[in-house]
Amino acid sequence: MAERSLDERIRRLEDRAAIQELGILYGFVMDERDGDGIREIFCEDATLRSQDGVFKANGIEEIVETYLGRFAALGPTNHFSHGHVVILDDTDPDRATGLIASHAEVSRNGVAMQVALRYKDTYRRVDGRWRFADRLMSYMYYLPFTELSEGLGDRNSVRAYGDHRPSDWPEVLYAETGNAWLAPYYTSRG
């Protein structure tokens, strides 16, 4: 690979920082129930999905409707981002992908719960600003605080919907595909 110019390197650092800030801003938008903010952080033609299949929204109107429905079941929430790996697309300066580790404290139907989340994202620069083009949510657990000690190791640790559903990860423990999907993140530091 040819060495990047100083201007290219600075642009890439600025892009990476802007995308990482977008990931943090998402949490504030969710916690504040900011419908207008949802429209600001997602592309018009974005998709929103969850690995368990509960969320499937195409386009900004469906995404806003999906989140407004989710907010109706939730009381206060507090989202935290713990780490964000960003891969800038070398063939398209307006496209990137990312992986975010996070958790949230929520009140769902009056029950205090904690959620371990991962987001696999595709980002696109639109009118000079980075936005979500695709967001795939997955859960390691979604448990009432009172069940964390025994529920954390339970394969069926997603309790958000009133039943016991399987967690989405760690994938290496639960899926035949293992963790090969992580490989692009190991070599993306350019």
TrEMBL record:
Record-linked Pfam families: SnoaL_4 (PF13577)
SUPFAM superfamilies in the cross-refs: NTF2-like
Residue span(s) of domain SnoaL-like: 11-135
InterPro entries per the UniProt record, alphabetical: NTF2-like_dom_sf (IPR032710), SnoaL-like (IPR037401)
Name this protein carries in UniProt: Nuclear transport factor 2 family protein
Organism: Candidatus Phosphoribacter hodrii
Lineage, uppermost ranks: Bacteria, Bacillati, Actinomycetota, Actinomycetes, Micrococcales
